[in-house]
Amino acid sequence: NNMFADKVGEEHGYTREDVDALQDKVTAGHKNLLEAKEAGELDWMKLPETHKEIAQEIKEFAEENRDKYDNFVVLGIGGSALGNIAVQTALNDPYYNLKEEARDGCPRLFVPDNVDPTRLKSLLDELDLERTIFNVISKSGTTAEPMSQFLTAREKVAEELGADSVSDHFVAVTSKDSGKLIEIAEREGIKTYYVPDTVGGRFSVLSPVGLVSSAFVGIDIEELLAGAGYMADLCDTDDLWSNPAYLNSVLQYLADQDGKPMSVMMPYAHVLKDVADWYRQLWAESLGKEFDKEGNVVNVGPTPIKALGATDQHSQAQLYMEGPYDKVVIFLEVENFRGNLEIGTAYEDIDGISYLCGHSFDELITTEKKATELALTKNNRLNCTVKFPEVNAFTLGQFIFLFELQTAMSGELYNINAFNQPGVELGKNYAYGVLGRDGYADMKEEFDSRPEK
Ligand code: PA5
């Protein structure tokens, strides 16, 4: 961590006393989280334990069925898609969809995570439906984006393969007791896995939301859960100096209170790019809130930003280095890359090029990370590093749990509810009104009388 004043000079950074001053708040927050967990309100905290058997069942289902399909398509959005993308791109070959040998008999994975017609049409046109399985994921079972995707995919399957085939080409993940997807899945005889009610979308990647697609694309989901469980044990203390989730939460909180609300996650490993995207949602949707727990208007929330090293050194780093003192950079560093490559050795006689010869790409990217870290630190720019010894299912599981818990503790520090998202409802309701959903006529009226631009 390069966020302490004794390392970065007096101007920016925090003393150990600043951190210690938040211990009481952390202790109270820890107690609240444990009580809520015991009361069954935060079942995402229990997934590493409660979902061991379910993971095994999902794994068996995937192993038995995956050779029937060349394509696995996730129909979901936000918390029902970003974790799926992050796990797959972190753990599988970067060109998994293009390389048959990398897939080792598993289907290609597509996660459109949007309703852009150009993209969706292009995907549906490309798929051989006979060899495709769609995983429709919606905890609420009513979200416009996955449900519209599902309606279209279902129609195409029924038209091309016959209505009797629907159950062979869909698997659903939804809430057991609410929403419309469960009703549809039952009517169609679609295999269904459940999201526990108190596992919110952005905290659900270790539930069937993320596990089904991961298992189909050959990821060791039991290791993923084992890694998360390992981190849960490591973080089973309210002592913030011993609990990495709480310590990072405190440091980010101090920074935000000190006028540094921009939280940049910058992996120096391309495979972790989508993990930063997952973090961006987790942090934004959980912590950006108008009201505190007592109902006072607070309008809090740091702004998460995803960046990628070394790519964004040529795009963002100038701003991070010399722009406003409003950012914290969380670097993700990988000690051992899967697969390495030596830099070519031609032109050893040419100055300005020859220094690259004899080095490897892991040396290059990690040196660039360390150089950027030092440059930021020298410029009094707050930063910290999360190190992956290597990126595998176990370490990724740890990382996921670490940041979920960090987010939950941050909610406690801000004294807000980190597990709801009332702010996204209004826009959705206008859209429902315009599209003609029952019960939303007043929203349409308000929409139609909106001021002219
Ligand atoms: O984190 C969240 O709660 C949201 O991002 C949801 O995951 C997203 O809106 C999709 O919701 P659902 O799974 O109910 O369709």
Q: How many separate helices? A: 20
Outline: globular
Largest sheet: 5 strands, parallel
Order of strands across the main sheet: 2-1-3-4-5
In the predicted model, the low-confidence regions spanning at least 5 consecutive residues are none
Q: What percent of the residues sit in helical stretches (DSSP H or I)? A: 40-55%
Which structural class is indicated by helix and strand composition? alpha/beta
Q: Characterize the quaternary organization of these chains.
A: single chain
Q: Which ligands occur here?
A: 5-phosphoarabinonic acid
Tell me the radius of gyration: 23 Å
Number of strands: 11
Percent strand: 5-15%
Distance between the termini: 48 Å
Provide the residue-averaged pLDDT: 95
Give an account of the 3D structure.
This protein is an alpha/beta fold and 453 residues long. Helix content is 47%, strand content 13%. The radius of gyration is 23 Å and the shape is globular. The site of 5-phosphoarabinonic acid has 14 residues, from loops. 5-phosphoarabinonic acid binds at residues 77-80, 138-140, 143, 146, 200-202, 285, 421.
